[in-house]
Amino acid sequence: MSANTPVFDRSGNMYVSDTGSWSEKIDGHICRIPPGGGAAELWTAAPIDTPNGIAIDPEEKFIYYVETWGNSIARVAIKKDGSAGDVERVVHMPRHIPDGVAFDEDGHLWIACHRPDKICVFDLATRRLEVFAEDWQGEALRGPCHLAFAGPTREILLASSLDKATVHRFDNPGVRGLRLNNPKL
Known about the structure:
The chain is mainly beta. It has a single domain, classed as Neuraminidase. The chain has no helices and 15 strands. It has strands at 3-8, 14-18, 29-33, 41-42, 51-56, 62-67, 72-78, 84-92, 97-103, 109-115, 118-123, 128-134, 144-150, 156-161, 167-171. The strands form 4 sheets. The protein has a 4-stranded antiparallel beta sheet, with no helix packed on it. Strands 5-6-7-8 form a 4-stranded antiparallel beta sheet, with no helix packed on it. The two termini are 24 Å apart. Mean pLDDT is 91; it is low at 181-185.
């Protein structure tokens, strides 16, 4: 197992992306660990393409994940019984290497792209992909990988860097990050 990124649902289940062998072979999975701990179990039965950053949508209907080598964002439906449903590619990003994702409270999906050095916002309703920040020279924004909203009201966007030991900070990006209601952690 090549554990990468965790995310929790409101019931306290932890889902972890398992990127697999980081090769052209599609052998990744998403695993689930029950509240309180225990052994990780395969949540996605069939292998998926290099799942990296993951996030749960505001309604907890889907787990969205980055297909790093697939240059895409995909999602897995969460069935009513908690099992994994169908996999669907949501947005293909040719010539991009997406790495991490996070939701804002309006349900937009924020995507950190390690290459080119860019942060995008994807509107699931309109299927529109927009650039929030980019630096083609990689000087001010270099290798963003994972995203998180922080601050007392989640009004700060943070993006860690895969290329250097730094965290990029964007104060008041115009939205606030998604907040879980009553997580049972």
